[in-house]
Design goal:
CATH class of the largest domain: Mainly Beta
Low-confidence stretches: 24-31, 155-159
Largest sheet: 10 strands, mixed
Bound molecules: copper (II) ion
Radius of gyration: 21 Å
Strand content: 35-45%
Structural class: alpha+beta
Shape: globular
Helix content: 10-25%
Mean pLDDT: 85
Number of strands: 10
CATH architecture of the largest domain: Sandwich
Distance between the termini: 65 Å
CATH superfamily of the largest domain: PCu(A)C copper chaperone
């Protein structure tokens, strides 16, 4: 009995040390702030009356951050989705990497606007607020584009 307690205690102690080490190294980076910019936002005219999707790119010239939620006056619920092998999956958050970007694009990550209060028309602008773990919320106006609009298709072809 005594022996077992000892062993358990040693394991717990090691785990505690490892965790403390991790926290220390990330605390160093936390002093650098994220520097976020949101660009290229658009919402294709939705096919359905009650649901729409949205896309944008968050670029970051500073420390890592996280997109934790999106809100909009046009929808009751806004959720974050990733797409893999044509299957959508709801995500709690998306990482915005240090000196990197978080990209939302057709066929990939997207924001889903559900329970729309009204159906947006092409040419409308939808007010959307992005909420981050560290950075202040960013308010953007998302232009409503044609249902087939895809700014990335040209970009990919030139790669
Ligand atoms: Cu979705």
């Amino acid at each position: 009995m005594n022996r077992r307690t000892l062993v358990g205690g040693a394991v717990a102690l090691t785990a505690g040390l490892a965790l403390a080490g991790c926290a220390d190294s990330s605390a160093d980076k936390a002093s650098d702030k994220p520097e976020l910019k949101v660009a290229g936002a658009f919402m294709p005219v939705p096919a359905m009356d009650d649901m729409a999707s949205g896309f944008f790119t968050v670029t970051n010239k500073g420390a890592a951050d996280k997109l934790t939620s999106v809100t909009s006056s046009i929808a009751e619920h806004v959720t974050l989705h990733s797409t893999k092998n044509n299957a959508m999956k709801e995500q709690k958050s998306f990482d915005v990497p240090e000196n990197g970007e978080l990209d939302f694009a057709r066929g990939g990550n997207h924001v889903m606007f559900e329970a729309l209060k009204h159906k947006p028309k092409q040419g409308d602008k939808v007010a959307v607020t992005l909420h981050f773990e560290k950075s202040d919320p960013v308010e953007i106006e998302v232009p409503v584009k044609a249902a087939t609009y895809n700014p990335k298709s040209g970009k990919h072809a030139s790669h």
